[in-house]
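Anyone? Bumping this.
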Amino acid sequence: MTVMVKNGPPSARNLKPILLKVYSFLYKIYGPQRWWPANSRFEVVVGAILTQNTNWSNVEKAINNLKKEKLLSPSILHKINPERLAALIRPSGYYNMKAKRLKNFLNFLFSNYNGKLSSMKRVPIEVLRKEVLGVDGIGPETADSILLYALDKPVFVIDAYTRRITECLNIARQGISYDDLQAIFTQNLPVNAGLFNEFHALIVMHSKAICKARPNCEECIFHSEKRKNR
DNA sequence: GGCCAGGACACCA
DNA sequence: TGGTGTCATGGC
């Protein structure tokens, strides 16, 4: 793989060939990911909120608790008392706060969409994103995860993994804002939910599997490129 | 026992 | 606008 990344402000650089090359390379290595790891749109939403600043394995434990109790549905969680919800999602950490955030989203869902996620799909992306961001406890990453993975909207998710790999490859500077980094992807790639879905999933896959964002990690498949670009 | 993991928000200067 | 503290569990 040959990736020529030059220094300079991201906005002034044509990053389309680099991003496409990184994508096709990751796809070749790891294959289709078919994300998100969930069995329903609502499970995606719950996972997106519970995974805030937390290891995914802890989120799985919390979701399994909800499944075991047969509570993983909007109508049931909408009615459940917050203390019980907090106790069930305890393994995901920050459980009191996350119980409130789940409740906040459910209140929004029932107030505006009759509790149906499928109804949200009809709303234009800009309107929907603004609405979801208006829910207390739903920030840009959580909102975009919900839009992309639960509602099939073409928004690129920026998370810790995305930041690491773009900084690692000198595609974006350290500390770049969420919106600016997101713009790098959306302005340099075809606007396509399937592509955004796979690309972000592949970034996470790669980061978990090998890279771990260590600039000197000899195991990283981008190791030679990183040296070249310094 | 310390560090880290797929954030978001309030508060302050 | 940017920095800092808070929220918390579980694996290594």
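Late reply, but here is one note on the structure posted above: The first helix of chain A runs from residue 16 to 30.
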